[in-house]
């Protein structure tokens, strides 16, 4: 420990977050007071000479719940044993509220550097340090925990009464300060809401979040930071409670005594429209998971195109300076020389062949039955199977949520963890319920096939022309089993060739054999 002739000392002052509200000057004077427990009293009592002062920025927390830096405290410890021999703080809580970890750290520094730490209740040079020190440091930390609970409890009470508990103001709102700081009023920022409503219209029309974000940029509408919108930031706007005129605290929508969400402002977008937008996003997300690293919506027939080597061909984007019909192509990543073909040219050839095949179907043939069966699988059980999966997941989440609620009531889950669980579970249940409610019923028959064929694949006014890309892909894959491409040119290893019809082989669906029917029945039984 420190020899008594080493009288150089540094003092450490810190104003807590709560004391910062009443003024740091008052708090500093109280810490320096000449009483026996104040810093001046400790300096006089131990006959120390103050050579340095470390004053932390006002409002800095020493709590173990805080992650903010305390540069003055770190500097004070760094110089202890070198520039001065004693570090003085009015109370342990001024120096640390992190518990046993800081006790061990201070103890190690004092032992290794022959230094000393003094407060109003403990001195590392005393016999009580090793026994009482850990307890005092832990008590300081526990005091912080209790204070934190009281603060959170007070904020929860304010939130339960519809009060303002701080945080950023939603971008779509204006805040109107009143005499009561805990109960301001809110109104919609109509300038912002106009653009959000425009975004909702465009999303319903089938545009992507990326396209809408670009639309905002083109019209000089920037986000709350004054920067360009990203698709992620825009999407988050449609998932925030503020768009429905609501707020949340600790992950939960703030509700009144009747259990219903408190409306702070009118809704920005109609709730039914919002449900449709969210459900559409869920569907697109599930579609984007098909294939291997390629967005299946970017093409109509990606899943059924194969190279002559037997490997599936992948879709790629070409040079943007090329004409639009030559910007995308299919290629085999394995073959050399390259086996690649322009996407739209290949798709037109396959589509024309598919419609010619459909036009030759007879109403009562086994082949027609096979096509209708394949078509129903493409259009509905995707959707119908997804409905069953989503419903089952919804039931499972509700069951698990119920079990976790019981654990929370028994005290096995703390408040913060429970709030996070509630938010995640409720968000997922909300999305699943919206998705299930919006899955359409099947509506396909032989007449649909003939309707598709009537005006050709690109005829104006045809059913085909009105379909989205992934629906067109479903139609083609209902009648076509496989497309095999062989357009290699030995003279050019990276050739991207136009697709000559004689070098594209199309395999159409065929009636199922008895064995295949039996296998299909067994597979369905397992799924259901």
TrEMBL record:
Boundaries of every Resolvase/invertase-type recombinase catalytic domain copy: 8-162
A single MF term (Gene Ontology): DNA binding
Pfam families to which the protein is assigned, alphabetical: Recombinase (PF07508), Resolvase (PF00239)
Classification of source organism: Bacteria, environmental samples
Source organism per UniProt: uncultured marine bacterium Ant4E12
PROSITE patterns in the cross-refs: RECOMBINASE_DNA_BIND, RECOMBINASES_3
Gene3D superfamilies linked to this entry: Putative Large Serine Recombinase, Chain B, Domain 2, Resolvase, N-terminal catalytic domain
PANTHER family with a match to the protein in the record: DNA-INVERTASE FROM LAMBDOID PROPHAGE, SERINE RECOMBINASE PINE-RELATED
Protein's name in the database: Probable integrase
């Amino acid at each position: 420990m420190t020899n008594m002739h080493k009288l150089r000392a540094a003092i450490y002052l810190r104003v807590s977050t709560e004391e910062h509200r009443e003024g740091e000057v008052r708090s500093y004077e109280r810490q320096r007071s000449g009483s026996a427990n104040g810093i001046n009293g400790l300096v006089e009592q131990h006959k120390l000479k103050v050579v340095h002062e470390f004053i932390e920025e006002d409002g800095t927390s020493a709590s173990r719940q805080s992650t903010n830096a305390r540069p003055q405290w770190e500097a004070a410890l760094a110089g202890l044993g070198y520039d001065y021999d004693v570090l003085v703080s009015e109370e342990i809580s001024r120096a640390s509220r992190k518990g046993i970890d800081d006790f061990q750290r201070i103890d190690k520094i004092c032992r290794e550097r022959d230094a000393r730490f003094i407060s109003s209740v403990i001195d590392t040079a005393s016999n009580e340090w090793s026994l009482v020190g850990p307890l005092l440091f832990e008590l300081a930390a526990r005091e912080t925990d209790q204070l934190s609970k009281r603060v959170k409890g007070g904020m929860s009470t304010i939130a339960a009464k519809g009060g303002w508990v701080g945080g950023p103001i939603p971008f779509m709102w204006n805040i109107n300060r009143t005499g009561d700081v805990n109960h301001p009023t809110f109104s919609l920022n109509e300038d912002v809401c106009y653009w959000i409503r425009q975004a909702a219209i465009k999303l319903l029309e089938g545009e992507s979040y990326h396209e809408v974000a670009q639309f905002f940029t083109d019209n000089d509408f920037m986000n709350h930071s004054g920067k360009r919108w990203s698709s992620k930031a825009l999407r988050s706007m449609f998932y925030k409670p503020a768009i429905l005129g609501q707020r949340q605290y600790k992950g939960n929508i703030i509700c009144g005594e009747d259990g219903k969400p408190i409306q702070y402002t009118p809704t920005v977008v109609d709730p039914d429209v919002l449900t449709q937008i969210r459900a559409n996003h869920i569907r697109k997300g599930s579609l984007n998971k098909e294939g291997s690293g390629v967005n299946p919506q970017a093409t109509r027939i990606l899943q059924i195109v194969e190279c002559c080597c037997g490997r599936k061909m992948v879709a790629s984007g070409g040079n943007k300076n090329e004409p639009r019909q030559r910007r995308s192509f299919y290629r085999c990543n394995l073959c050399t020389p390259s086996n690649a073909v322009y996407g739209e040219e290949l798709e037109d050839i396959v589509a024309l062949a598919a419609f010619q095949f459909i036009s030759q179907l007879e109403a009562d043939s086994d082949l027609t039955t096979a096509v209708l069966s394949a078509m129903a699988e493409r259009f509905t059980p995707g959707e119908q199977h997804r409905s069953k999966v989503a419903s089952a997941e919804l039931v499972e989440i509700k069951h698990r949520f119920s079990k976790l609620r019981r654990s929370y009531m028994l005290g096995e889950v703390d408040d913060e963890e429970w709030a996070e669980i509630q938010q995640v579970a409720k968000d997922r249940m909300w999305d699943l319920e919206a998705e299930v409610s919006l899955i359409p019923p099947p509506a396909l028959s032989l007449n649909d096939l003939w309707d598709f064929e009537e005006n050709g694949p690109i005829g104006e006014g045809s059913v085909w022309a009105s379909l989205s890309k992934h629906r067109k892909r479903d139609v083609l894959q209902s009648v076509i089993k496989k497309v095999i491409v062989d357009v290699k040119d030995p003279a050019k290893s990276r050739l991207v060739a136009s697709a000559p019809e004689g070098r594209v082989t199309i395999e159409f669906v065929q009636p199922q054999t008895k064995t295949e029917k039996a296998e299909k029945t067994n597979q369905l039984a397992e799924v259901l």
